[in-house]
Amino acid sequence: MVFDRPLLTEEQIQARVKELAGRINSDYKGREILAIGILKGAFMFFSDLVKHINVPLTVDFIVSSSYEDTTTTGKVNIHLDARKPVTDKDVLIIEDIIDTGISLNYIKEKLLQKSPNTLKICVLLDKKERRLVEVDVDYTGFEIPDEFVVGYGTDYNDNYRNLPYVAILKQPG
Fold it and tell me: Where is the signal peptide (predicted)?
């Protein structure tokens, strides 16, 4: 596996993270956020984003999976659910990427069953071309082409998460 030049540089990502945080700060002024990161992919984005959010917040995480190699299984596995109470909270789901929408919709619906006050979604990367289930995303970092990407938390079989940029993964041959 190889990748070309970055699709999104570290500088582009960090500038957009600050912009997203600014919008979130404005939208949630005077309120407290329960920020729920979707692991493992969102760990870098989540960490960088919450550093720039200046309204009160608490954090929690959901660990889920739905991919094997570069293919979605269509089945969402929740390995660890959020532990903080969601009822009557202003919930912000923070996710690295949305493509088919299956996983994010599943998580959103599961959280809505717990009666939050509000529920919004923030994603770094959006592959609209692959959408099978429509999901309203409130904050989007970048729309990207229908390519398999790695870096800045996204992975291929748990590899490349540590790259500070996002690149398109190319299979040899």
Answer: none
What's the one-letter identity of residue 127?
A: K
* pLDDT tens, residue by residue, 117-142: 999 999 999 999 999 999 999 999 99
The predicted pLDDT at position 64 comes to 75
Low-confidence residues in the chain, pLDDT < 70: 1-2, 65-82, 172-173
Could you confirm whether 99 is annotated as catalytic? yes
Q: What are the domain boundaries of the chain?
A: 10-145
CB 93 within 8 A of CB 38: yes
DSSP string, 52-120: T--S-EEEEEEEEEEEETTEEEEEEEEEE---S--TT-EEEEEEEEESSSHHHHHHHHHHHTT--SEEE
The catalytic position among 90, 99, 126, 155 is: 99
Please give the structure tokens belonging to residue 85: 């109470």
